[in-house]
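Notebook entry, structure prediction.
Reason for the run: the old model in the group folder had no record of what sequence produced it. Starting over properly, with the input documented here first.
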Amino acid sequence: MSYRVTITAILAALVASSVYLWPSATEPGVYAPISGRNNTVLYLTDSSSDLVQSHIASAFALLETRPDIQIYWGSFGTPAIEPYLRNISADVQAKNPNVKPINFHELGGQSMTGALSERYRLYDYITEYGLAGYGKMLPVLEDMLMPWDTKEYFALFQETVKLIEDVDPALIVVDNLPRVFVDAARNTNRRFAILSANSLSDILAYHQPWKSMFWKYPALMSGHEFPVPAHSIFPNIWMQIRLMATITASSKLHTARSELEVMGINEPMGMHMQWDSIPLISGDLLEASLPLSYHPTNLTICGPMTLDPIPAEEQNPELVEWLDSSSSTTILVYLGDAFTYDKERTRKMSNAIWDVLRETDVQVLWQYEMNGDFSNTWHFELLKPYVENGRLRIYSQPEFDVDPISLVNSGKIDVWVHHGTTEYYRQAVRAGVRQVIVPLWLDQYNVARLVEYVGVGVWPGKDTAPVWDDDTLFGGFLEVLQRPGAELMKRRASDLKEVVAQYSGRHCAAEQIAWRAGMGH
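New structure, fully documented this time:
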């Protein structure tokens, strides 16, 4: 995962909780789309493969199961997504020569990912949770919704409209972002579907009865429990109001919308996408999410839409042999290959790992990348005996040549320490792995609370986040390993693994897309 991709994923999580808050100005039933060419699908996405991995996975399943469907893809050249699409086409064609490869069309201008990565660095997003961090977070929302100037936005809109008219698809598949693709689909009166990996509680909180998004469902980055406790209701209401006000009353966005309307876009950057006639294909897991009272009729819950990674045994057999060499519990400390530890966080995590190795018989696998050169500091000497006796493996990013998801799926990891991305949370749930969450920004605080609500892990350090405390981290490790409740977490994680195995993920999404692609002329 590249640094640029990570920034976009962070910002996408931010907007995911806001794009559905604006009620529709269009009544259900008005939408009567053009049919388009039968069995023709057009994906319109950003070019970050990490941000649109659910779309890529669904396209792979389409190629596998419906070789009669022609897939087109409109996206940007940087970061490069075409190689991924070319590879999945080649993989399926190797088994079935009749499969039609994905037809890629490179859009001009700068991608959303590229535009945003020029303005923000990874560490710009480390914030306190709750109201204390909102002042830093909300201004980012404006740039996320409008990463281009109005001329660039309109040029991309025009190019996308032309692509739609040239392809004449029976169905367009989009994500919540970028909004320009939704504008193009709506303004050409085409049938489109929203494919989203975001949590349904983020997407649909606004549509729950009795305005419960204010008093029951935690606001983005609030870190509140579910249901929101009485003492947190007023702060939660204020956070939701501030979020909505940024979307609806921001002078920057209001000016951009007005200019784009003058240029000829009808209702540009509209947030109203919950018409009953617009399918929403979700990658959420009902049993591992916050419960919802209302599910719209346009919703299909497929579960995580992912590509199966190469087994860990094939990627790094020596590492898997080390994992198998001991019957001890294994902890994976992996916060993402783009995350870098500063000196203070290195010290805190080193101390926590040292304590858990000293007090238990576990073994630890730690993926670690420094933000600076401080590799010879004392904490590495502290851990050296455990490296030498084989109970600790430390890998820098270039050395960590194995997909962490394949490790988690291998059944050889018992506890995963990560920073709380939705993707990592769901992958751990699918694998039946307990979790220790150390959130740093945005939706990660909500995921940390979700882990505790579902009963598969803990969030140590609520009082200090995003600052780490080594004693608190150590306490979190012990809580999932041996303290009262640890065995219950283990059973809960195992039970959820069996339930989640019933979801078909990318194949479910492919079925939904194929069915609607067959409605053309």
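Summary: The first strand starts at residue 37 and ends at 44.
The old model has been moved to the deprecated folder.
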